[in-house]
Amino acid sequence: MSRPLSLGTGEEPIPPGGTIGILGGGQLGRMTAMAAARLGYRVHVFTPDAGGPCAQVAAAETVAQYDDFAALAAFAETVDVVTLEFENVPLATAEFLAARRPFFPPPACLAVTQVRTAEKSEINKLGFATARWAPVRSADELEHALAIIGGIAVLKTNRFGYDGKGQAKIGPGDDAQAAWVSLKTDDAILEGFVDFVREISVVLARGQDGQIAAYPAVENRHRDHILSETIVPASIPPALAAEAERMAAAIATDLDYVGVLAVEMFETRDSLLLVNELAPRPHNSGHWTIEGAATSQFEQLVRAVCGLPLGSVAWRPSHMINVIGEDAQNWPAYVADPRAHLHLYGKPEIRPGRKMGHVTWVLPTSG
User: Fold this and answer.
1) Do the domain assignments include residue 228?
2) Sequence-separated (6 or more) residues with CB below 8 Å from residue 121
3) Parallel, antiparallel, or unpaired: how do β-strands 81-84 and 19-23 relate?
4) Which terminus of the chain has a lower count of CB atoms within 10 Å, N or C?
5) What average pLDDT does the segment 166-194 reach?
């Protein structure tokens, strides 16, 4: 251990030389570990899958299931603080570790963000709009919810969905019963379909002292339900961008959040903002910050969980694309582009829809 630890919320800063535990071994953990190393921290990754993107750059790796409490206890003994790059870690796992080491974001935040109905309720409680929604626990409840919401709707699993997985679109005349069966769950949510102009997101960091540093609202474009590109900043009026940042900050404060939080929103055709989802971790739409901002979202996470002051979010216009599936074969062209910043995640197998990396271009500014 790098220093004596008292259990609690991590009021004392963790100095460089300490070890950050990360739950989840994917690319978000990888980029967090690289940012941590730059500040002099080590990373110990806990993951069910050996040799993943994070482990390739981490100081240590524990390979075990998230319900292996003996392995979790041993892991906790080796780290100074725990965070995550994968929000669907079981809540019991987060609570177990939080009893042993400072854990950010707090398990209470995960209890909200892991459950869509809880998340929507919390957002609506703050007075922020979402798509119309209703909980659905049976085929009969689905029929009732469809009658209330009307028009086109999207049926989603209430927990553990991402990148378009675990959902089905239902329009007038569609077989709602088939959609219900396809989800293979008795815990779902029905959301009204939003006819939006664009999807935007705000990525922010909140420190243990309540300080908030928000990046500008960005525009996100999807392909097959997977983020394809992010444009910085979003082409929306300044007042709407400021409102998006205000809403994101209010949500983070309400949750007493510590770490990096992404708030996804829709801009409607009447210039309103609807909150779509929260991501309690670094977010794909914030990858541009590695080159396009003074402090990346990954360094901000390290700073927040270690109790350091947050960094500057001064930024430059940027364009980021995901390298998905076979797009990874285009790496020679990206390497040859003197303005392109290529990040490959070290995944050994190319699969359709798999995020293999990303590329960022920092755009020239006038003056």
Assistant:
1) yes
2) none
3) parallel
4) C
5) 91
Residue 6 lies in a domain: no
Q: For residue 261, what pLDDT is reported?
A: 98
Q: Is residue 345 part of a domain?
A: yes
pLDDT at 163 over 80: no
- CA 11, CA 240: separation in Å to the nearest integer? 35
For residue 88, the domain's CATH number is 3.40.50.20
Determine if the peptide bond prior to 332 is cis (ω within 30°).
Answer: no
Domains contained in the chain, number: 3
> Residues 263, 326: one domain?
yes
Asked whether the beta carbons of 247 and 265 are under 8 A apart, the reply is: yes
Length of the chain: 367
Q: Are residues 321 and 230 in the same domain?
A: yes
Residues 72 and 153 in one domain: no
* Residue-number span of the structural domain to which 137 is assigned: 132-192
pLDDT digits (tens, 9 = 90+) for 212-258: 999 999 999 999 889 999 999 999 999 999 999 999 999 999 999 99
pLDDT digits (tens, 9 = 90+) for 110-147: 999 999 999 999 999 999 999 999 999 999 999 999 99
Distance CA 329, CA 33 (A): 26
Rg (CA), the chain: 20
Q: CATH number for the domain including 261?
A: 3.30.470.20
Which H or E run includes 243? helix 238-254
- Helix, strand, coil percentages in the chain from 3-state DSSP, rounded to 5: 30, 30, 40
233 cis-preceded (ω within 30 degrees of 0): yes
- 225 and 257: one domain? yes
Q: Kind of pairing, strands 60-63 and 42-47?
A: parallel
